C-alpha cells in the first residue's frame, strides 16, 4: 500500500513493489520462457493466490454492488505477506536507495584497491 501511495504523490513511470516482483523483473528479460513456465504453465502465479477452502453458497459477492464492510486493503493472505519489505522501502525512498548504491559501489571499489 505504501508503494501505491508513493506513486500517487510522486508521479513515476515504474515502481516495483515487493521483493518477489523485483526478482521477476530481473529474470524476465533473461529468460521470458522460464518466467512463463513458472507463472503460467506451472500455475505458480495462480496457485499462490488461491485457497482450497470452498466459498459458501450464501457468501456475499460484489457482482452488482459493493459489499459493505469489505472496504479494506487486507485480505485472506495478509498473514502470509510481509509488511516491512526493504525493496519497496528503497523504491519509495530514492535518496536512501541511491545512497545505498553509492556506498556499495565505493565499498567494492575500496576492497578492489586493497586487494591490489
Can you walk me through this structure?
By secondary structure, this protein is mainly α. The protein has a domain at 1-48 and 85-116. The chain contains 6 helices and no strands. It is elongated.
SSE inventory with pairings:
Elements lengths: L1 H8 L9 H12 L1 H10 L2 H4 L38 H6 L2 H22 L1
Helix pairs in contact: 2-3
Give structural attributes.
single chain, 116 residues, mainly alpha, elongated
Helix content: 40-55%
Number of helices: 6
Sheet having the most strands: none
How many strands? Answer: 0
- State the separation between the terminal residues, measured CA to CA: 46 Å
Low-confidence stretches: none
Radius of gyration: 20 Å
Helix-strand pattern, N to C? HHHHHH
Structural class of the helices, strands and pairings?
mainly alpha
Indicate the overall shape. Answer: elongated
What is the strand content? under 5%
Task: Give a quick rundown of the structure.
Helix content is 53%, strand content 0%. It has 116 residues and is mostly helical.
Amino acid at each position: 500500500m505504501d508503494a501505491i501511495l508513493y506513486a500517487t504523490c510522486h508521479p513515476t513511470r515504474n515502481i516495483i513493489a515487493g521483493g518477489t516482483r523485483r526478482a521477476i523483473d530481473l529474470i524476465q528479460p533473461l529468460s521470458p520462457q522460464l518466467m512463463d513456465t513458472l507463472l503460467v504453465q506451472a500455475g505458480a502465479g495462480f496457485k499462490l493466490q488461491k485457497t482450497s477452502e470452498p466459498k459458501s453458497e450464501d457468501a456475499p459477492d460484489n457482482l452488482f454492488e459493493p459489499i459493505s464492510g469489505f472496504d479494506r486493503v487486507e485480505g485472506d493472505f495478509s498473514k502470509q505477506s510481509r509488511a516491512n519489505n526493504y525493496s519497496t522501502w528503497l523504491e519509495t525512498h530514492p535518496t536512501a536507495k541511491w545512497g545505498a548504491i553509492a556506498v556499495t559501489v565505493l565499498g567494492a571499489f575500496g576492497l578492489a584497491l586493497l586487494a591490489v
